[in-house]
Design brief:
Chain A has about 100 residues and is an all-alpha fold. Chain A is built from three helices and no strands. Classes of the chains: A mainly alpha (about 100), B mainly alpha (about 500), C mainly alpha (about 250).
């Protein structure tokens, strides 16, 4: 076994997240799928940090975590505000703009 | 262990960035400590002063070509030119955002947390708008400036998020049609987060390929490995998805019309002018510094993307009945024209691209300024049928809008012509004949919706309920004048700016 | 440490299925709270992978920041929005779900085979050399020299996040809009309002059912102890018949 196995796992997780974004319609769950994609990327970064013998990948993973934290705050605030207006968090209910 | 030493930082070179971010931070403090009645009067001069100071700082360091802060930032010609363009367009955007005369209290809602459609929401309809938008705008502009100067993938990613997050928020803050605005914001946010996940995966793969995050290191590694490497190929593909999303290129454009329509019109203007400029700044750096030596492999795909963007944007613009959506599709088509300049992959192409972005930015900001003025009792009247006969009601503004539309259509003596000429001649110079032919066809198709608006304004009878054109306040008038002067000025005497762009067209690193 | 130790292999083969299962469960679960918990499961497994591969620091940060802060925020908002915010099964775009799954399998196949083929024989450098001074000092040395500007700029992100949460979620009430205690007390004893708490259903009655009204001391029915729902409901003759619970 080599660290490549981690990368294959990461690709699988990333894909599951991407498929989830496309098929789920609850805005909060869609957002969770995006978080899964970010986690998959972090696994890749940490593994590559090991295979290349540099620390940049780990540092990038930290930056991803900071960004994810800020993004979650803003995203959930936006989803909350639309939910309070519409009383539903489904992406397809947000459809005034589709025509 | 040995002591850590901060890498040398050329503070003069990054002063413009620090000034814009500083204006944002002071703006947050103003929100915290200045009484509500005074905030607007403090925030607007503060932000404008910060931007003007940044512009002066940029002019004073215009000859600098350095890589600073441990190689994280490249303050080179394109970075400085694009930052200058961003600050100039940013000033005009801030003027539009700060307008409070046209609509009582401005285009932004007083308290976004009050549930839309309730009694308390109706009560706040005449209260002055939220002043938090000014620091948010400052952070967005600062992030875009950083994005154009980022010299490694880490800084680029952080900058991407720094300018995206405030934009997601600004989209949700419209005063009228709040539900539409919130939906636009959710869409922009979810798709933006999705695309930045792809960007990140690209970053991870490229890092795994090269073992470094800097563009110079990437280029060296790429030149060594040739183009066979799977990691390199997949990495470029994923990275491009994230960048093309921000630039609204087909097939990653679907968010654009919805978001442009739902967002408050001044913010739409800022997105069309500044975000597009920043996104292409990043694209230019990635493709000319990072992967210039392996261009043969990714070129066919990107040419296909450019062609699809030009055609889809133009054809969809023809079918639109809403002026904001029309401008959104036109901005997609324009992204395609800009991309032909990028694909020339020459210094001429870089110069043409940068000139196009600045010229287009001024015109599109002026166009959205006119859109904010055409109003009826429900706010902006954006449906095209409502614009019928506007030429008789208000000849001045109809005339102004006509000039802008002609500039979009690329009529000579407007900036639209010179900028299209700049990118297409650069593309011809690089033997991209197909791109130029498709670009010309697409421009011809795109002229139709523009001229239709003009014909509608002049030749149709005004209806009973034709909306009135509000008298613009000082800020909007100023923005309109700047936009118009730039549109005609860059069309009649493009020389100085074009020369400046040519001088600034070589990247370092 | 270019080689993968047996211990690490065992950890991988146990936790990789857990991570994958968590991910699939998150996408497949109907209930949003279940999705969140599945995702926590995946994140914890990834945290262990980080500890195994790169050192304790990033693994611990993963657990604290991702599972501890970010996922808790998700759960918090889910509870606030309503736990029943689950999806409907109806597809709006016909065939979108199948298309997405097919695309996803294709994408995963492409990426995974590409990675496996591209990296099959790649030498693993290992982190011993760079971690000679210790993992955390080594990270600090990189972070505060090469990436110091990006590090400082993340403050703009955090300020934006705080500002955004304030703008979108905090309702500012000015003086005069909020009721004072004095006004509340007056309203409570104003004519037309009943100051005491409502009698609970079944309090003075012989049954605990919500449908059994409270009885006043004079054995009349206390109307306000019944919810509107019960009153509106039509009863069948059999249901309306006396149950005989009054008499012994």
């Amino acid at each position: 076994m080599t660290p490549t196995y981690y990368l294959v796992l990461s690709a699988a997780l990333f894909t599951i997240g991407a498929v989830g974004v496309l098929i789920r319609r609850n805005a909060i769950v869609v957002f969770m799928c995006v978080e899964l994609m970010l986690n998959a990327v972090n696994l890749s970064l940490v593994t590559f940090s090991r295979t290349t013998g540099t620390l940049d990948g780990q540092i990038m993973a930290f930056f991803v975590m900071v960004v994810a934290a800020a993004e979650v705050v803003i995203g959930l605030a936006i989803i909350m505000s639309i939910y309070r207006t519409r009383r539903s968090a489904s992406v397809d209910d947000a459809n005034l703009l589709k025509y | 262990m040995e002591e850590l030493h901060l890498p040398p930082i050329d503070y003069a070179a990054i002063a413009p960035l620090l000034l814009v971010f500083g204006a944002g931070c002071v703006g947050v403090l103003v929100e915290a400590f200045v009484p509500r009645a005074w905030r607007y009067r403090v925030q607007v001069p503060l932000l404008l002063a910060g931007l003007v100071a940044a512009l002066i700082a940029l002019i004073s360091v215009a000859d600098k070509r350095v890589s600073t802060a441990g190689g994280a930032l490249a303050i080179d010609g394109p970075a400085l030119f694009l930052q200058g363009g961003l600050v100039a367009l940013g000033i005009v955007s801030v003027l539009l955002i700060a307008e409070r005369r046209v609509e009582r209290g401005g285009a932004f809602v007083a308290q976004a947390s009050v549930v839309a459609g309730t009694d308390s929401d109706r009560r706040q309809s005449s209260q002055p708008g939220a002043t938090e938008v000014y620091p948010l705008t400052a952070f967005a502009l600062g992030g875009m400036m950083l994005f154009c100067a980022a010299n490694d993938l880490v800084t680029m990613f952080v900058a991407l998020e720094v300018f995206s997050l405030p934009l997601y928020l600004l989209c949700a803050l419209a005063r009228r049609r709040r539900l539409l605005s919130q939906e636009a914001s959710v869409k922009y946010f979810l798709l933006g987060a999705f695309s930045s996940a792809f960007f990140l995966y690209g970053v991870a793969l490229l890092y795994g390929f090269a073992g470094t995050m800097s563009f110079t290191g990437l280029r060296e590694a790429a030149a060594e490995a040739g183009s066979e490497d799977t990691l390199l190929f997949l990495g470029i593909a994923m990275l491009s998805v994230g960048l093309l999303f921000k630039a609204a290129m087909v097939p990653f454009h679907v968010w654009t019309p919805d978001v442009y329509q739902g967002a408050p019109t001044p913010v739409t203007g800022m997105m069309a002018a500044c975000t597009k400029l920043a996104a292409f700044g990043g694209i230019l750096r990635v493709f000319t510094v990072g992967f210039a030596d392996i261009n043969l492999d990714w070129e066919p795909i990107l040419i296909a993307v450019a062609i699809a963007t030009m055609l889809v944007g133009a054809v969809m613009a023809v079918t639109q009945t809403d002026i904001k959506r029309l401008l959104a599709y036109s901005s997609i088509a324009n992204a395609g024209y800009v991309f032909t300049g990028v694909l020339a992959l020459s210094e001429e192409g870089v110069a043409g691209t940068m000139f196009y972005l600045v010229a287009y930015g001024f015109t599109v900001l002026a166009a959205f300024a006119v859109v904010t003025l055409v109003r009826d009792a429900d706010g902006e009247a954006t449906h095209l049928s409502r614009w019928a006969g506007l030429g008789r009601r208000s000849p001045l503004f109809a005339g102004l809008f006509t000039v802008l539309m002609l500039a979009f259509a690329g009529i000579p003596l407007t900036s639209g012509f010179t900028s299209k000429f700049a990118v297409f001649s650069a593309a011809l110079g690089a033997d991209q004949v197909t791109l130029v032919i498709v670009g010309l066809i697409s421009s011809a198709v795109l002229a139709f919706p523009y001229l239709r608006v003009v014909v509608l304004m002049y030749l149709s009878e005004p209806a009973e309920d034709t909306p009135t054109v509000s008298l613009p306040g000082v800020f909007t008038s100023l923005a309109l004048v700047i936009g118009l002067v730039a549109t005609i000025g860059l069309g009649v005497v493009p020389g100085p700016v074009l020369e400046l762009a040519e001088q600034a067209s070589s990247f370092i690193g | 440490m270019a080689d993968v130790t047996t211990g690490e292999q065992i950890v991988f083969w146990i936790l990789a299925p857990v991570a994958l299962g968590g991910a699939i469960g998150m996408v497949a679960a109907r209930n949003a709270v279940h999705s969140a918990l599945f995702l926590v499961c995946t994140m914890l497994s990834l945290g262990v992978f980080y500890v195994v591969q790169a050192g304790a620091f990033i693994g611990v940060v993963q657990v604290i920041v991702y599972t501890g802060a970010i996922m808790m925020l998700f759960l918090f908002v889910l509870m606030l929005v309503g736990r029943d915010a689950s999806d409907s099964l109806i597809e709006v775009l016909r065939g979108q779900r199948m298309a997405a799954i097919v695309l996803g399998i294709g994408f995963a196949g492409l990426t995974a085979t590409g990675l496996a083929r591209g990296l099959g024989e790649v030498e693993t450098e290992g982190l011993e050399a760079v971690n000679a001074v210790g993992n955390v000092p080594a990270i600090a040395a990189e972070l505060f020299t090469h990436y110091v500007f990006a590090f400082e700029i993340t403050s703009a992100l955090l300020i934006t996040a705080a500002l955004g949460a304030m703008v979108l979620a905090h309702i500012e009430r000015r003086k005069g809009e909020r009721l004072t205690q004095r006004e509340r007390s007056r309203a409570r004893f104003a004519p037309g309002n009943y100051p005491a708490p409502k009698a609970g259903p079944g309090v003075f009655a012989t049954s605990d059912s919500v449908a059994t009204p409270a009885l006043l001391p004079d054995r009349t029915i206390a109307e306000r102890s019944l919810t509107d729902v019960v009153r509106i409901r039509e009863l069948t003759a059999a249901e309306a018949r006396p149950k005989g619970t009054d008499r012994r």
